[in-house]
Amino acid sequence: MKPSSPSDPTPDSDTGLIDRFRSGDETAFEEVVRRYQERIFQFVHRVVRDTEEAADITQETFIRAYGKLGGFRGDSSLFTWLYRIALNMSINCLRKRKLRSFVPLWDSTESEFRPDEFRPDEFWAQGGPEEDMAASRLRTRVEEAISGLPPRQRSIFVLRQYDQLSHREIAEVVGSSEGAVRAGYFHALRKLRCALQDCL
């Protein structure tokens, strides 16, 4: 479901659900969960690469959202706010697992990038058993390459490539500028192309 406009006051819009929740309507939060839990889970799973941890983080995201929704100021849309909670928890999970140290990318002075789009889905072959096996191996290579990105770059790549968020929306999620998001996405694409250069 496409997120509603932050200014949409109808009862079933995100803004309407928040207003209903603040008025004591618990079913409004249940609707928030139904509306966004699958998207949040898919995002978290692509970042942490573990189904059980992704399920736990998704559940904890909504638990935390429930406690904070009354004070939600509406500076961003509801779904980017939920993504931000999930992102922070995902990165904390990766840090605890000590997979990789976080390397900040937010000091880039470049304002615009136009890299070729990296489209993982274009590589999934369809055909007989040999083609399926080759596609499976390639899928594994791509997933490993994505998992090898630093957590912030991985998050930006996932939000852009799989969740189809705009640079502005991603900037709201990660708490950075659009230029920094473009830089992070550019670096992620470059690293993935290097890691998969024998496949491309």
CATH topology of the largest domain: Rna Polymerase Sigma Factor, Chain: A
Order of helices and strands: HHHHHHHH
* Number of alpha- plus pi-helical segments: 8
Q: How big a fraction of the residues is strand? A: under 5%
Q: Would you count the extended β strands for me? A: 0
Overall body shape = elongated
Mean pLDDT: 79
User: Structural class of the helix and strand makeup?
Assistant: mainly alpha
Protein traits:
Rna Polymerase Sigma Factor, Chain: A; Arc Repressor Mutant, subunit A; mainly alpha; 200 residues; single chain; 0% strand
Question: What this model shows, in words?
Answer:
The protein has helices at residues 14-22, 26-48, 51-68, 78-97, 129-147, 151-161, 167-174, 178-195. The protein is mostly helical. It has two domains: 14-97, Rna Polymerase Sigma Factor, Chain: A; 120-195, Arc Repressor Mutant, subunit A (Orthogonal Bundle), CATH 1.10.10.10.
Brief rundown of the structure:
The protein is built from 8 helices and no strands. The chain has 200 residues and is mainly α.
Protein topology:
Blueprint: H1 14-22, H2 26-48, H3 51-68, H4 78-97, H5 129-147, H6 151-161, H7 167-174, H8 178-195
